[in-house]
Design a protein that fits this description.
Blueprint lengths: L1 H11 L13 H7 L6 H12 L14 H6 L8 H6 L14 H6 L5 H10 L3 H5 L9 H7 L3 H11 L13 H6 L7 H9 L12
């Protein structure tokens, strides 16, 4: 594509693939400025990575390219590429969120969640990571009513259903917030997986 050709031309003329400008790098900018991601942007990514761009560079919010891509439903095709180049699944941003948490909290990103989970080496540690608010990926899945993701996390990846956040809430307590008919199966799934029905948060 013309974008890939331009990137190659600039690099051959001495452009720094890790140049920091406004707390960002060329690699981070491929996501930042191209929300409607397509194959031409993938080619730019490949050119940058092949020429030594740091795949784990961070922006001013301490987010990596993997986190930004994970939260964009149109970027599922580049996640394996980033992981092949050594993107760190366990990195956390300023709020303690991982790429997996970003994916679960974003719309139309269920496939991104599966890709990240399948790529994890230590799956139990990844799914039970807590951010600075004590939240896990399972809790966010409960908040966003992502039943299939909840089942996947519990059945295939050993998500701990009884971890509590800083306010003492478990995934079940989060699911019970704004209860409606759609959450019934979700709550049943959590209880069958061993969620304590007698747990109390910090408010009692």
């Amino acid at each position: 594509s013309k974008y890939g050709n331009v990137a190659t031309f600039l690099i051959r003329r001495g452009a720094n693939v890790n140049q920091i400008s406004k707390n960002s790098t060329p690699l981070l900018n491929t996501i930042k400025y191209f929300y409607n991601y397509d194959s031409s942007h993938t080619e730019v990514l490949e050119v940058l990575l092949e020429n030594g761009a740091s795949v784990n560079a961070r922006n001013d919010e301490h987010k990596t390219l993997l986190m930004l891509a994970a939260s964009n439903g149109k970027c599922k095709s580049i996640l394996p590429l980033l992981l092949d180049y050594g993107a760190n699944l366990n990195d956390q941003d300023n709020d303690g969120n991982t790429a997996l948490i970003h994916a679960v909290c974003s719309r139309f990103c269920s496939q991104n969640v599966s890709i990240l989970l399948q790529s994890a080496k230590n799956k139990n540690d990844l799914v039970n990571v807590q951010n600075h608010a004590g939240m896990t990926v399972l809790m966010y899945a409960a908040i966003h009513r992502e039943l299939e993701i909840i089942k996947e996390l519990i059945v295939n990846y050993g998500a701990d259903v009884n971890i509590k956040d800083v306010n003492g809430n478990t995934a079940l307590l989060h699911a019970l917030t704004n209860y409606n008919k759609q959450t019934k199966e979700l709550i049943t799934t959590l209880i069958k997986a061993g969620s304590s029905i007698n747990c109390q948060n910090n408010d009692g």
